[in-house]
């Protein structure tokens, strides 16, 4: 009597009640191939055709087995309707025994074999002789079998078994090559996504850095500016005047300073209120900014008093500029009442003592106010 031969091979560890068909790790490995329910492909069909010719077997299959069915990635010689369906339930599967044993299965006559004689493939697919070798991954998971089938009893020999074993190895080489290519493409895709995300983050970081730079610039401007007039505040003005004075001293250039005070400003505030007084100061600041050179400095010294630094400007030129500023303020179309300003001018051919230069301009300013306001007074030039 002819009976089947199961040739077990080393595989993943098994324990009591362990069923390789339902092993989640094996099913995951099978899923990762992407072959279940995929269309026929020439690479696999060539192997089943070659096996059929070499073994003179009417049927050759690449069978993938999950926990519910077997799917034929390649099917040579199957009868209809199975050839079109390309799958059977496990009740019709000899290959499930290959998966369970993780080794070849040799069946000379299935009708006489206790392992498979109740298998419905005998009745429905005409399977009598079966020879299958496991499709095993490099990780040790058996995904199915490469098998040859005959409709008559057959005494398979060692050469036949070697053929299906080699065909199984070739099938798995094709499967794992595809998986490697797929994994590489996925890795490249993930890398490309990571690079795109990194670039997006980099752009966002650049934008954020630019925003922070703008904020810092605005903060720096606010820290250096008078909140009402937008001119330099007294702290920033002193630093800028010191820098310009040092430059003029090293370059052998003169420097002049103007002190400007809005006339009768307290009386204006008392008569019209502080908000309108602020409007006057803002307008005066604008007229000063318009009337000086790009390289000159203008700041609010305090209250209704302003200071202007004129690097490289002699006493004569400074006096002329001061007069133009005084006239522009006096002639401005003020809506409530006339507004004027007094101006003190000081100059130094070698500005080595900035505080003295500022004091001289301040003393000249008070002389202008004492002499009747709305006028320019010039201090004696400093050496």
UniProtKB/TrEMBL annotation:
UniProt xrefs under SUPFAM superfamilies: GAF domain-like, Nucleotide cyclase
InterPro entries for the chain: Diguanylate_Cyclase, GAF, GAF-like_dom_sf, GGDEF_dom, Nucleotide_cyclase, Rev_trsase/Diguanyl_cyclase
GO annotation, cellular component aspect: plasma membrane
Top-rank EC class of the record's enzyme: transferase
EC numbers for this chain: 2.7.7.65
Gene Ontology biological process terms from the UniProt entry: cell adhesion involved in single-species biofilm formation; negative regulation of bacterial-type flagellum-dependent cell motility
Chemical reaction(s) catalysed: 2 GTP = 3',3'-c-di-GMP + 2 diphosphate
Domain GGDEF: 253-381
Region (Disordered): 1-20
Keywords for the protein's UniProt record, in alphabetical order: Nucleotidyltransferase, Transferase
Record GO terms (molecular function): diguanylate cyclase activity
UniProt KW Cell inner membrane keyword: no
Matches recorded under PANTHER family: DIGUANYLATE CYCLASE DGCM-RELATED, REGULATORY COMPONENTS OF SENSORY TRANSDUCTION SYSTEM
Protein's recorded name: diguanylate cyclase
Species: Tautonia plasticadhaerens
Lineage summary: Bacteria, Pseudomonadati, Planctomycetota, Planctomycetia, Isosphaerales
Gene this protein is translated from: yedQ
């Amino acid at each position: 009597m002819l009976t089947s031969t199961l040739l077990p091979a080393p595989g993943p560890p098994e324990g009591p009640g362990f069923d390789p068909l339902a092993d989640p790790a094996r099913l995951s490995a099978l899923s990762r191939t992407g072959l279940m329910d995929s269309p026929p492909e020439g690479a696999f069909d060539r192997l089943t055709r070659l096996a059929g010719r070499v073994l003179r077997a009417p049927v050759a299959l690449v069978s993938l087995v999950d926990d519910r069915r077997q799917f034929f990635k390649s099917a040579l010689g199957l009868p209809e309707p199975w050839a079109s369906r390309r799958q059977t339930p496990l009740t019709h599967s000899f290959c499930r025994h290959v998966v369970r044993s993780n080794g070849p299965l040799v069946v000379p006559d299935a009708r006489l074999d206790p392992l498979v004689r109740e298998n419905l493939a005998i009745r429905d697919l005409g399977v009598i002789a079966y020879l299958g070798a496991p499709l095993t991954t490099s990780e040790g998971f058996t995904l199915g079998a490469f098998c040859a089938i005959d409709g008559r009893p057959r005494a398979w020999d060692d050469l036949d078994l070697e053929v299906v074993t080699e065909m199984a190895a070739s099938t798995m080489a094709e499967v794992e090559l595809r998986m490697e290519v797929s994994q590489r493409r996925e890795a490249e895709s993930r890398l490309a996504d990571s690079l795109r995300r990194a670039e997006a983050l980099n752009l966002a970081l650049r934008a954020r850095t630019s925003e922070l730079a703008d904020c810092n610039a605005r903060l720096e401007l606010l820290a250096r500016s008078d909140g009402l007039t937008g001119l330099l505040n007294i702290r920033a003005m002193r630093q800028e005047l010191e820098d310009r004075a040092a430059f003029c001293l090293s370059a052998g250039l003169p420097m002049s300073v103007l002190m400007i005070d809005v006339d009768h400003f307290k009386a204006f505030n008392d008569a019209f209120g502080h908000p309108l007084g602020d409007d006057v100061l803002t307008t005066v600041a604008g007229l000063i900014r318009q009337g000086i050179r790009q390289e000159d400095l203008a700041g609010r010294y305090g209250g209704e008093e302003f200071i202007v630094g004129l690097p490289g400007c002699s006493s004569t030129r400074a006096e002329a500029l001061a007069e133009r500023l005084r006239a522009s303020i006096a002639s401005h179309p003020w809506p409530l009442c006339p507004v004027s300003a007094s101006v003190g001018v000081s100059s130094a051919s070698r500005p080595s003592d900035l505080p003295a230069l500022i004091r001289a301009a301040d003393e000249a300013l008070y002389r202008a106010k004492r002499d009747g306001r709305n006028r320019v007074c010039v201090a004696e030039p400093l050496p």
